[in-house]
Amino acid sequence: MGKEPIMDLADGGVSRRRVLLGTAGTGFGGLAGCLTRGEDSGLEGEIVIDGSNTLLPNSALVAELFMWENNQVRISVSGSGTGAGFQQFCRGEADLQNASRRIGDGERTLCEGNGVDWLELEVVMDGIAIIKHPDNTWCDQLTVDELGQMWERGSDVETWADLDDDWPGEEISFYGRDAASGTYDYFTEQITGAVGNIRNDFSGSPDTNNIVRGVRGNEHAIGFAGAGYYEENEDDLEVVEIYNGDEYASPSPETIEASEQAPEDRTVEPYEPLSRPLYLYVREDALERPAFREFVRFYLETTQETARDVGFYAVPDETIEEQRERLEDAIERYV
């Protein structure tokens, strides 16, 4: 039996999410280099994961756990963004693609042109939080229509008073993910009605930590970011509740997971429309490799637990079972 892992990723001064983002930022090389012990299962090989920065912490943690149990397997986890990651995945340069949105038509065409067959797996739930400075005491709730007015291209909302006469006449600073991000695509589609429909003067960043810093430093700022980043910084930030059609809701494990539940099974109102699944895309021909197919199986076995460890939310048991069945069907085609 191997000894206990040599990296302590338990909650503490540095969160699991931050540790995993740091080690994965250079292709997970730092962490992989540390995993020199653990168990030799007989599996060996290399696996390349790229794509969404948002899903990266979950995939990095799953990879760490798998490498500990299979110490002759090396897994590289990078975060070039959903859009850039799909370009590599569809050229056959990555085995797995983390994605914070579904594959687009142009990416489907690119995969088809390069003979890359793929399998889509829904692996975690996430929410997009609307974040503000704690000293912003006026804007606690917004409707989707109000958010759209603020964020759409050509918006005439420049100050808080443009939304409500009782609010300050101070200019709003806008922060969010940049155009290479699936989070950007999902937010604009849900809030402004079309992917890429967003005001030209917002500060877009590939790094959510820059969004957090921007909002944290300006009481008149607003931003959108993955809900896990808010939870990690809730001493310095607050969230704006969003009207979901029935009532106002904020992102939480209960409200986000409720968005995947049948209405009769819900105990709380879902956080909609800003709850979303995150996806793992599997390059099907890689399933011929034993280490690869065992890793994908392991991912589905562990993701409900790892998701909560790194600030995401679990997909329902029924969804996991559906993904397992689809994975096994794909494996049968290659083994």
From TrEMBL:
This protein's record includes keyword Cell inner membrane: no
Keywords: Signal
CDD domains: PBP2_phosphate_like_2
Entry keyword annotation includes Protease: no
Residue stretches making up the PBP domain: 45-300
InterPro entries per record: PBP_domain (IPR024370), Phosphate_ABC_transporter (IPR050811)
Protein name: ABC-type phosphate transport system, periplasmic component
